[in-house]
Amino acid sequence: MTVTGRLGAAFLAALFCASCEKQAAPPPPPPPGVVCVAAEQRNVANTYQYIGQAVAEDWVDVVARVEGFLVKQCFQEGSLVKKDDLLFEIDPRPFEAQVKQCQGDLDKAMATLADALINFQRYSTLAKQNAVAQKTLDEATMQKGEAEGQVLSCQGQLDIAKINLGYTKIMAPFDGKIGTCPVSVGNLVGPTINTKLTRIVSVDPIKVEFSIPESTVVHLVKLCGSVSAVSGRVIPRVLLSNGDAYPLPGTIYFSDNEVDNTTGTLLIRVRFANPDRLLVPGAYVKVRLETKEKIAAILIPQIAIQRDQTGEFVFVVDADKKVQRRQVQTGQTHGLDIEIRDGIKVGDLVITQGLMKVRPGMVAAVTMAQPKSSSPEAGD
Questions:
Q1: Which residues of 318-330 are buried (b: 16+ CB within 10 A; e: fewer)?
Q2: What is the β-pairing status of strands 323-327 and 311-317?
């Protein structure tokens, strides 16, 4: 074979090999890896969560009921006070003098009345003997009545003076925490000047107010028979603003008698013991109502839930390792899990990680998630 022939044969062989390489199919990619959790059934309590506000059961603006100069302030701002503790004292001297003056007027009126009674008795006896004219007896009777009226008037004035003297000592009306004081000793205070001296709010117990929607009202009535019976079958709890759970449960003691027609909600009040003062009046908290009775529910992690215009759905892996899409109806959340009311059965493998890598019909490489303990909200 000539050199040219040998080169041509080599060229044709190279072309043939290149053609064969182009026709060979590449190896299929490995199935995407996903992490799955098996849907499980647990006994859980129904829970309802709302935003509420802590409110003092009792509060009062401490005011001056008589006018005078402030001579004592007997507390520290922000401190706790007991019922009948002395808070302020207004200069009592003008009021003590008023009491003495009224007492003197009363004594004088009592003396006048004594004289009028003597005259009345004397003329009454003489009139029976026809020794004096009827007109004289009538005048004595009138003087006795005037004297009695004067005594009553002076007694009333003395009572008022004593009451005003009592108002110079301002006492705490109940146990509570006292606020700021905008006036200091030496200021003139009274009903029309520097009226508000401070505010006291009760702190233990404390109430939390919140509103529930009409739909929840209907559900609770069906569950308990009436709104008033809810307190016996529901445990109220609160979460503080920092996310910590308040350690003590509360008691529902009030529900309004009508739904607010502007918001479609019903006002509820819960009373909590507050020995450590963790609940501060005015603070916003999360209120959770937990039913005492627990029910069986199918739970999966909340991160498995996907949403689009058709609603909520999850991806599951069937027995053939193929990915399926399932439309689901969700219920309440319990910690990191969520209740599934329709679309999933116990034992279904729900994809929680790798969701962006799969499509319905694909084969997936499944890794089971590490088992976790039940969330505290779900119970056992």
A1: eeeeebbebebeb
A2: antiparallel
Strand partners, 206: 56, 272
Residue 83 to residue 297: CA distance in whole angstroms? 51
Amino acid at 18: A
Q: What is the DSSP string of 268-288?
A: EEEEE--TT--S-TT-EEEEE
**pLDDT for 297-349, tens place per residue?**
999 999 999 999 989 999 999 988 999 999 999 888 887 899 998 999 999 99
- 35: β partners: 353, 367
**Which token pair is 54?**
């802590």
Q: How does pLDDT run across 215-262, given as a tens digit for each residue?
A: 877 777 776 666 667 767 788 899 888 888 899 999 888 888 888 888
- 2 pLDDT more than 60: no
Selection from 255, 79, 72 nearest residue 176 by Cα: 79
Kindly report the number of other CB atoms within 10 A of residue 41's CB atom: 12
Contact 110, 151 (CB under 8 A): yes
22 belongs to a structural domain:
no
**Residue 339 near residue 9, CB atoms below 8 Å:** no
Instruction: Determine the structural domain holding residue 316 and report its residue range.
Output: 33-44+295-368
Does residue 187 or residue 16 have the better pLDDT? Answer: 187
Per DSSP, the residues of 117-140 read HHHHHHHHHHHHTT-S-HHHHHHH
Domain count, the chain: 4
> Does residue 258 lie in a domain region?
yes
Is 279 found in the same domain as 179? Answer: no
Would you give the distance in Å from CA 97 to the centre of its chain?
A: 50
pLDDT at 70 over 60: yes
The model's pTM = 0.63
